[in-house]
Every structure is written in structure tokens, then in C-alpha cells.
Amino acid sequence: MEFYKDYLKVPPIGGFTTVYFPNQKFGEVDPTFVEEFFDQLPAKWKILDFHFDAHIVTFNKDKIHPLLLDGWHEMTDVFDLHQNEVVHLGYYGNDVFGILASKTFVTDDQLPNFHSRCITPGTFVRFQVQLSRDTVNNPYLSLWNEFESFVRESNFNVLTACCDNGTKTVFQVSIHDVPFKTTTIGLGWWAFCRQNGFRSGDVLCFKFSLQGPANNVVRVFKISH
Known about the structure:
Elements: H1 2-7, E1 14-20, E2 27-28, H2 31-37, E3 44-48, E4 54-58, E5 67-68, H3 75-79, E6 85-91, E7 96-104, E8 124-130, H4 133-137, E9 140-142, H5 145-154, E10 158-163, E11 168-176, E12 182-186, H6 189-195, E13 203-209, E14 217-224
Parallel strand pairs: 3-7, 10-14
Antiparallel strand pairs: 1-6, 2-5, 3-4, 6-7, 8-13, 9-12, 10-11, 11-12, 13-14
């Protein structure tokens, strides 16, 4: 442990800000940070605070949907984090991270721009879809109105849907104008709903980032049921 204490005496070489939500099983990692340090990042991270409490979390090594998995939900027990808390993590090289600061956020616009729940104007576009019994049992999802227009204007061939439980699903986008206008994503929608626990009556948010090159990546999460 003395070896790791020494890290916190020097400035970090990088870092990112994330959020601890009690209803999110995994922690979201800034893709910009991951892109910069990807080759250095191991599958297990040691996280310390300035009381020298220590905890290990696992990293999924995914550039598109980077998450902290096993151990993330237990962070609150080790570091006394509160619900809905912004956490600033410094990276000291190898597998060592330090909690530089944390605070409870008051409004959603205080969240980092990359985060799925961020609502900073100009950084995202999102659409809501209410699921019916027919919707969740179909092999594909039909898009309508503004959601359909956005997908058509973006010329997407595929969409990569990322969910809170760590799943990442690639959907083909099908666009037709004859014999009538249709825009769908699938096949595989039925299985996607079951894999992620989406049911009839749920309202799903489909959130696209307007920052960075991978704007065909959509975060999908339940906002009511």
C-alpha cells in the first residue's frame, strides 16, 4: 500500500469525471480519456482516495461503450459516496487511479458531456419511444416523426445501441420509400428488449451524442415504466 500512496503525492497524468448513480450498475468512462490512454489501461483498476482507502474495479476495455463493471456499485461502501455524486478520477499510470474530488450534483446540466444522462444543450439529441406489447414482440423497431427524420438525414447504415447493463448491440438500419415510406432498426429488436429488461409500457430514451465522430452510437435507457 505504501507504493500506491506515493502516487497520490504527484500530479496525475490524466483523468476524467464520471457520476455515481445508485440505479446504474456500472460506471461510465469518458471515451476521450479511453482513446488517449487505451494501450496503458489494464482490465483491473486500483482506485484510492486521500484517506488511502483502496478498491478494485474492472474495466471492459471497450472504446465505444467504456464502462467500469465489477466493483463499481460497491464504491459507495468503500469511499462513502452519496447518491447522484460527481466523481473526479485522476490517472497516475499503470493501474492506479485516485479520487481527487466528489460532490453531489444539483441539476443534470452539471454532468460531464459524454455521460448518457447529460442534458447540456447542443451536445446531444434524444428521442423517446413508448413500448407497447406489439413493439416489444416485433423483430424490428419502426421509427416515426423526428426520430425517423434524424436517422434518415444522418444516412446511418447501422446503429450501435449501448445500454446501462453493459450490452452493446449493432442494428442494421432499413430505409425504404416504396411502396411506402418506412424506417426501421433490426432485426434483433425482440431479443434486445429481453436482454435489457425492456417491457410493454416502458418509455425508452434514445440519446445520440453530437460530439465526436461516432454519432451512430446511441445510448438506450429506460426513463419510466
